[in-house]
Write a structure and sequence with these properties.
Layout lengths: L2 E3 L5 E7 L2 E7 L3 H21 L5 H33 L1
Helix pairs in contact: 1-2
Keywords: Cell cycle, Cell division, Cytoplasm, Septation
Pfam family, one: ZapA
Subcellular location: Cytoplasm
Length: 89
Amino acid sequence: MGAYVLSDNKTRTTVDIYGQQYSIVGTESISHIRLVASIVDEKMREINGKNPNLDINKLAVLTAVNVVHEYIQLKDAYDTLERELKKRD
């Protein structure tokens, strides 16, 4: 995987997700971009293990749906904790 810093504090790196190479540009660190890619790859492989007949497009959409579902659950839990902490003040 190649990685280098671009202007405007942006970084470009190449990652492998589900057997495909993607060039990602972002302001996050290379290690962060690679972590995100590995989580997406892991989630796609997990879903494919349960649904091996899905084509790549459906697999990608189901992966996105699952990740957003998990994000909403975590955000709800965070918001609940934040409200509880404010009550203590």
